[in-house]
């Protein structure tokens, strides 16, 4: 059984959280205190059939119900499935100082039989559930009863063919046997207790116990020993029970017999240990007395070892199946908060791929992380971003069509998710120039979270502006086009209109900016002259304003004819950055369209843009 979809409403600070799981991994990212751990805790509560604490209900709405919905891919239980998935929901309600839970199954809507509708008692029960108002007492008039019946039938007929229905107890018993075993590794741990096997809740205890338990199920000699021990335990227990029963009969003669239902013997619960570390001098020290880094490293080593342990168990399981003597092993869901804590980058990368292998071979792995390395190494569809909008926490996820990742140049996923705004430009030279211009105005684009995407020409503008990843993660972006005389057939105005027609929310926001000329039109001639080593008097301002690239070529020929040495041919990628670096703050602010583009980027990043150029003039 594996999880395919999760939806959580009103749990702690989470307003709504949803995630589709394509394979075995789910990576939840977001700023601190945005609800990442809450999402994992809600999943654990559902799968372990627990109940939220009273403090888990949202503070902003004390009457709100907590809803956790999970869809499963599972073998069997065909009669409970909808569209090949088992869809379950648990609804939790506060009732004074306790929490009530209702289990629901998305299934075919039950339609009452004629016999049920003919019985007034069942008719009333069905009708009240559907919102039909019934009198306190049964009407004596048959016409009144018939009218109530018609109203109930009308409500029944209006029901959708499928919907959320109460999950029967016997069905839940079947489902519960197949639910994955949850191994929850919190970020903040009690290291004294987590290294002990004596506590069911300890991290080390759970990680070791699940391996021991599954190993014992497939190892034939161990199973034989357990059967012997279990037989002896039952025999001793029966003798003790008989003595207790005799004493009870003396006290209460009406009692005929006292019985017990024994659960299967779990030897792993009786296995206890405390972790020690031996140093180079041969001294054993309890791990709880060593540094947090070493403690976390041992925990990560146990996680990484799960793959090898599970491979051995799988091999033994295949051998047991050949002998028709194998027990079913429950799948495992590893829920881990910030697994990268205390690890350097190389160790983080090794850990990430160990967890990825674990998700592919031995179960599913759900994690929260702040690691940019984890974000960059992960498959895009496995990442869920939690963010706050208008005071509410929501989740965002990018599911590529046909599982094809959207490519955004050299921009990393971590930059996209941790940044504030994307600026989409035509080429590398545009990126370098705008970065330098922003710095000249006293801002650091990296620090502000302004990331640039190069689209390799105006012709690709619609592809990048329509990139699903920008839309799915709701990342603000500004698209910059220019009027390049050297690209035939391009029409930036038509491109802008087509993009705004597709994304109506862009209209009026001026997120698509068309420069009044080419990038080179915004260079000052003094800087051009300096970088290309062409005397400024040989560059005709009118020619440059009309066609800057052609004007630079003509000026170069003039310089060469005049015998000037070291004159350079303009190379856009190489020289545009150098020219931009030589421009002053005043050179940039004097061009209104450039100033407005930079102002928009700064303000979208959350900073204030102050234009002091007018003060300088005054």
How would you summarize the topology of this molecule?
Elements lengths: L1 E10 L2 E7 L4 E5 L6 H12 L18 E8 L12 E10 L2 E11 L5 H5 L1 H10 L12 H16 L4 E5 L2 H10 L2 E5 L5 H4 L8 H16 L1 H32 L24 E3 L5 E3 L5 H31 L9 E6 L7 H17 L1 E6 L3 H6 L5 E7 L2 E6 L15 H6 L2 E5 L2 H13 L4 H4 L1 E5 L6 H5 L2 H5 L4 E6 L9 H11 L9 E4 L9 H8 L8 H6 L1 H14 L10 H11 L2 H5 L2 H13 L8 H5 L1
Parallel strand pairs: 3-12, 3-13, 8-11, 11-12, 15-16, 15-17, 17-18
Antiparallel strand pairs: 1-2, 1-4, 4-5, 5-6, 6-7, 9-10, 13-14
Helix pairs in contact: 3-4, 7-9, 9-10, 13-21, 18-21
Describe the structure.
The protein has 618 residues and is of the alpha/beta class. The protein has three domains: 2-178, Rossmann fold; 181-229 and 273-329, no CATH class; 406-523 and 583-618. Helices cover 43% and strands 18% of the residues. It has a six-stranded antiparallel β-sheet, with helices on one face. Helix 10 links the parallel strand 11 (332-337) and strand 12. Helix 3 (120-129) packs across helix 4, helix 7 (203-218) runs parallel beside helix 9 (292-322) and helix 9 runs parallel beside helix 10 (345-361). It is extended and about 125 Å long. Residues 190-201 and 401-407 have low confidence and may be disordered.
- Terminal CA distance: 73 Å
Low-confidence stretches: 190-201, 401-407
User: Count of helical segments?
Assistant: 24
Largest sheet: 6 strands, antiparallel
Strand share of the residues?
Answer: 15-25%
The CATH topology assignment of the largest domain is Rossmann fold
In CATH's first tier, which class of the largest domain applies? Alpha Beta
What is the 3D shape?
extended
What's the alpha carbon Rg, rounded to whole Å?
Answer: 34 Å
The structure class reads alpha/beta
| Widest beta sheet: strand line-up | 2-1-4-5-6-7
Relative helix content: 40-55%
Mean of all residue-level pLDDT scores = 83
Number of strands: 18
| Architecture (CATH level 2) name of the largest domain | 3-Layer(aba) Sandwich
- How many domains? The number is 3
